Amino acid sequence: MTNNPWKEISLDIYEAHMKQEDVKQLQALNAMMKQQLNSYPVKELMILGVAGGNGLEHIDPDHFQTVYGIDINEDYLQSASQRYAHLSNILKLQCIDLCTQYQLLPHADFIVADLLIEYIGIECFKDIIRHVKPKYISCIIQIDYDDEWVSNTAYHDAFQGLQQLHQRIDGERLSEAMQKLSYTLLLTHSQSLPNHKELLRLDFQYND
Question: CA 129, CA 126: separation in Å to the nearest integer?
């Protein structure tokens, strides 16, 4: 795999930054993910950028046959495996660089991609969707209303290496890209955050 700055950020630092009172992304994502996971009648779920598994506690093992958790950081996946050992019968964790190894992804009926597209880009995401061919997609992107895309916390400097990857993604551009792949926008939902930021959820369904 290529040297990706996400491999250099420890899970402890990532989660400590995300749950700061003036950030609150970890908490907001957890609540939004609970809604995502219970939205569609599917048996195979793929979570792109699963990290340490925030939100996996909302998975009903009687509902899903298989849950794929994909991330580029092996340490994140090991933590997720330990935290959610009760899901071991259905949780399949795979260390994959989505931009160079997406062909290794299995098929899944439903893809969840939260705060991921900003770091792989829309074209890479389209390649993933063409390969996996999900019926449903649910994405969460971050909308920044100022120039700072990383909130200013004590852990701010740990994320500076991500500057080489980060792209600002807006809902309209993402929707247009999915429409070109025959996906119809089903739902939009926004959640305000501190520091002039917003989480925007967009769900799509494939047109047979």
Answer: 5
Contacts of 61 (CB under 8 A, 6+ apart): 86, 87, 89, 90
Q: What are phi and psi of 10, to 5 degrees?
A: -70, 150
Per the CB < 8 A criterion, the answer to whether 7 and 26 are in contact is no
pLDDT digits (tens, 9 = 90+) for 15-65: 888 887 767 888 999 999 999 999 999 999 999 999 999 999 999 999 999
Q: Which domains does the chain have, with CATH numbers?
A: 5-206 (3.40.50.150)
- Determine the 3-state secondary structure of 180 from DSSP: helix
């420890």: which residue's tokens?
A: 10
Q: How far is C-alpha 33 from the chain's CA centre? A: 10
Cβ-proximal residues to 42 (8 Å cutoff; 6+ apart), any chain: 64, 109, 110, 135, 136
- φ, ψ of residue 107 to 5 degrees: the values are -75, 150
Residue 104, token pair as written in the block: 């290794």
| The dihedral sign for the CA sequence 160, 73, 198, 164 | positive
Task: Note the helical H segments in the chain.
Answer: 11-18, 25-37, 74-83, 117-120, 122-132, 171-180
For residue 61, give the 3-state DSSP assignment.
coil
Q: Give the integer Cα–Cα distance in Å for 201 and 113.
A: 10
Q: What pTM was computed for the model?
A: 0.93
Residues facing residue 188 across a β-bridge: 202
Compute the C-alpha angle 29/31/36, nearest 5°: 85
Instruction: Name the nearest CA neighbour of 98 among 75, 135, 123.
Output: 123
